[in-house]
Amino acid sequence: MAKILGLGGLFFKSENPEVLAKWYQRWLGMELAFPYGVSFASKDIPANGHQVWSPFKSDTQYFQPSDKAFMFNLMVDDLDAMLAKLAPSGCVIMPEREKSEYGDFGWFIDPEGNKVELWQPPATSPPA
Predict the structure, then answer these.
(1) CATH number of the structural domain spanning residue 68
(2) Which residues, other chains included, contact 74 with Cβ-Cβ below 8 Å and sequence gap of 6+?
(3) Among 49, 56, 108, 116, which is least packed by CB within 10 angstroms?
(4) pTM of the prediction?
(5) Domain, as residue range, for 73
């Protein structure tokens, strides 16, 4: 039987893909593996990390203050260190933080107005 194996990619429009990709490379350390893109290896996902595909209601406020119809989430190994690394980049770091059994979350708005959620997976599995 045919089945989905995981998230194959996240593709979105950009006003200047090369400039935005280089911003992510400089400030988040994302290594460009092909023109304007990054490839993540499944072996690098921690034990309690996972990929999520999740539609939201059309009137969600969760993506604000961005006016985009999407938000993407990047898995990180150290949320506080990543946000500190971003501080001098010129992006807008949102002051809210969330800690839960599902991990730690923080957000920023990139140079093109995209809301990005950073997620540090929990050290132990969340309850089922």
Answers:
(1) 3.10.180.10
(2) 28, 116, 117, 118, 119
(3) 56
(4) 0.85
(5) 50-120
